[in-house]
Amino acid sequence: MLQSAYAGTQWLDLPPGHALLIPTWLAPSEAASLLDHCLQDLQWEQPMVRVFGKQHPIPRRHAFVGDNGVVYRWSGLEQRPQPWTESLAVLRAQLVRAGFQFNSLLVNHYRNGTDGMGWHADNEKELGENPVVATVSLGQERRLSFKQRDGAGRLSVILSSGSLLLTSGAVQKHWLHQLAKSTRPLKERISLTFRYINS
Ligand SMILES: O=C(O)CCC(=O)C(=O)O
Ligand SMILES: [Fe+2]
Q1: Which residue among 23, 43, 94, 173 is least enclosed by CB atoms within 10 Å?
Q2: Would the annotation count 52 as a binding residue?
Q3: Complete domains list, the chain, with CATH
């Protein structure tokens, strides 16, 4: 029988697109040291955004990393990237070897269960027609849910520490996703979301 080098790898059916989940992409120790590295060495922000006419801090922290000259426009914000650290550049290089092209990385830090991200799609026009987004998860496992824009389709997956999720562009067009808050006591999680931004 054919053995996968990455135990538990599975395709998620999100018609007409797909996502590939590799739960064991990074070794647990590698994921743990990357988490510490990000906490210590990135510049974190918790910007305010307007929701239904009122200003609120986003329910998480984030850091934007990228190539010189990339601009990330998001919810009325315009962010310029901090440079790649050596460890994050190595991770990107591994994805490039697999054939993907990314010039930026949005890093999300969920401090506990009261942090999360509401329903949205990664479909800003700077991401282009069919953006592939690669998400590496570090720390506390959390549930990522998908719901179809015009249908009853629903699916959710657990993103464990060290996992890699690759979502195809068609998924962003036809599905929304969220990282729901939880009333359970949860430890911190970081997600590294690699993107290609045309700016
Ligand atoms: O933290 C996650 O896994 C999801 C993050 C996300 O959806 C995003 O950054 O657009
Ligand atoms: Fe997203």
Answers
A1: 43
A2: yes
A3: 10-41+58-195 (2.60.120.590)
| pLDDT mean over 157-172 | 96
Mean per-residue pLDDT over the chain, rounded = 94
Looking at residue 125, the DSSP 8-state letter turns out to be G
Instruction: Answer whether residue 52 shows pLDDT above 70.
Output: yes
Can you name the residues that pair with 175 across neighbouring β-strands? 148
* Ligand 1 contact, 163 CB (< 6 A): no
Token reading at 3: 């053995």
Contact 143, 158 (CB under 8 A): yes
Q: What was the ipTM of the complex prediction?
A: 0.99
Nearest CA to ligand 1 atom 10: 122
Burial of 17 per CB tally in 10 Å (0-12, 13-18, 19+)? middle
93's CB contacts (< 8 A; 6+ apart) are none
